[in-house]
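Reviewer 2 asked us to include a model.

Predict the structure of this chain.
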Amino acid sequence: MQWKRRPKWYQRRRDRGTFLKIYRLTKIEGYGAGAVLYVRIVDEDGRGIDRTRTELHPDRRIWDLMYNGIQHSIANGCEINSLAVEMLHLENSPALRLREARDDG
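Predicted model (structure tokens):
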């Protein structure tokens, strides 16, 4: 997922903070700041974003891809806290059940 355009070649060769590997997430954390709830998403290279849930899915097609990446990452052991599970409606997620089964066995 990319959230801003890449700068011109003469400005910076590589801006590491403008995209996430959504199928390689390592941490998904929900937290509150004042009266607003945020989700922090971090990938395997340490890049991350902090967004409200509504900011994550203004376009349904992009949100579907993001949600699939989140599910994939959770099933493969991504850290996630209970607030993020509630915010993203993952309570009955097959990815959480798969991860729990893998951790138990």
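The mean pLDDT is 82. The longest strand covers residues 25-33. We have added this to the supplementary material.
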